[in-house]
Amino acid sequence: xxxxxxxxxxxxxxxxxxxxxxxxxxxxxxxxxxxxxxxxxxxxxxxxxxxxxxxxxxxxxxxxxxxxxxxxxxxxxxxxxxxxxxxxx
Length: 89
What we know:
Shape: globular
Distance between the termini: 26 Å
Order of helices and strands: EEEEEEEEE
Oligomer: single chain
Largest sheet: 5 strands, parallel
Strand order of the largest sheet: 1-3-5-7-9
Number of strands: 9
Helix content: under 10%
Radius of gyration: 11 Å
Protein backbone atom coordinates (compact mmCIF):
# COMPACT_ATOMS: atom_id res chain seq x y z
CA UNK A 1 0.00 0.00 0.00
CA UNK A 2 1.26 3.46 -0.87
CA UNK A 3 -0.07 6.80 0.35
CA UNK A 4 1.38 9.98 -1.07
CA UNK A 5 0.37 13.63 -1.08
CA UNK A 6 2.00 17.02 -1.00
CA UNK A 7 -0.25 18.64 1.56
CA UNK A 8 -2.34 16.00 3.28
CA UNK A 9 -3.22 17.24 6.74
CA UNK A 10 -5.18 14.07 7.34
CA UNK A 11 -4.44 10.70 5.79
CA UNK A 12 -7.66 8.78 6.28
CA UNK A 13 -7.82 5.04 6.46
CA UNK A 14 -9.64 4.90 9.75
CA UNK A 15 -10.06 7.70 12.25
CA UNK A 16 -7.48 10.49 12.05
CA UNK A 17 -4.35 9.92 10.06
CA UNK A 18 -4.26 6.27 11.00
CA UNK A 19 -3.36 3.10 9.16
CA UNK A 20 -4.12 -0.22 10.81
CA UNK A 21 -4.01 -3.92 10.07
CA UNK A 22 -1.82 -3.77 6.96
CA UNK A 23 1.10 -5.98 6.04
CA UNK A 24 3.17 -3.08 4.76
CA UNK A 25 2.67 0.62 4.09
CA UNK A 26 4.62 3.51 2.61
CA UNK A 27 3.68 7.06 3.57
CA UNK A 28 5.13 9.99 1.65
CA UNK A 29 3.90 13.55 2.14
CA UNK A 30 5.24 17.05 2.59
CA UNK A 31 2.89 18.19 5.33
CA UNK A 32 1.09 15.72 7.58
CA UNK A 33 0.36 16.92 11.13
CA UNK A 34 -0.68 13.52 12.47
CA UNK A 35 0.30 10.05 11.31
CA UNK A 36 -0.70 7.02 13.32
CA UNK A 37 0.39 3.55 12.27
CA UNK A 38 -0.61 0.44 14.21
CA UNK A 39 -0.47 -3.29 13.70
CA UNK A 40 1.83 -3.29 10.67
CA UNK A 41 4.56 -5.73 9.74
CA UNK A 42 6.67 -3.01 8.16
CA UNK A 43 6.26 0.69 7.42
CA UNK A 44 8.19 3.44 5.67
CA UNK A 45 7.30 7.05 6.45
CA UNK A 46 8.90 9.94 4.57
CA UNK A 47 7.79 13.49 5.31
CA UNK A 48 9.26 16.96 5.13
CA UNK A 49 7.04 18.39 7.85
CA UNK A 50 5.26 15.95 10.15
CA UNK A 51 4.19 17.33 13.51
CA UNK A 52 3.18 14.05 15.11
CA UNK A 53 4.14 10.52 14.14
CA UNK A 54 2.89 7.65 16.27
CA UNK A 55 3.98 4.11 15.56
CA UNK A 56 2.92 1.12 17.64
CA UNK A 57 3.25 -2.67 17.47
CA UNK A 58 5.45 -2.80 14.40
CA UNK A 59 8.11 -5.33 13.50
CA UNK A 60 10.20 -2.78 11.63
CA UNK A 61 9.80 0.89 10.72
CA UNK A 62 11.79 3.46 8.79
CA UNK A 63 10.98 7.12 9.42
CA UNK A 64 12.66 9.87 7.44
CA UNK A 65 11.66 13.51 7.80
CA UNK A 66 13.20 16.96 7.76
CA UNK A 67 11.07 18.51 10.51
CA UNK A 68 9.25 16.29 13.01
CA UNK A 69 8.76 17.77 16.48
CA UNK A 70 7.19 14.64 18.01
CA UNK A 71 7.84 11.00 17.19
CA UNK A 72 6.37 8.29 19.40
CA UNK A 73 7.44 4.70 18.89
CA UNK A 74 6.24 1.79 21.02
CA UNK A 75 6.51 -1.97 20.83
CA UNK A 76 8.97 -2.15 17.95
CA UNK A 77 11.52 -4.82 17.16
CA UNK A 78 13.61 -2.48 15.04
CA UNK A 79 13.32 1.17 14.07
CA UNK A 80 15.30 3.60 11.94
CA UNK A 81 14.62 7.32 12.39
CA UNK A 82 16.43 9.87 10.27
CA UNK A 83 15.54 13.52 10.79
CA UNK A 84 17.26 16.84 10.29
CA UNK A 85 15.23 18.58 12.98
CA UNK A 86 13.49 16.40 15.58
CA UNK A 87 13.28 18.02 19.03
CA UNK A 88 11.39 15.14 20.64
CA UNK A 89 11.68 11.43 19.91
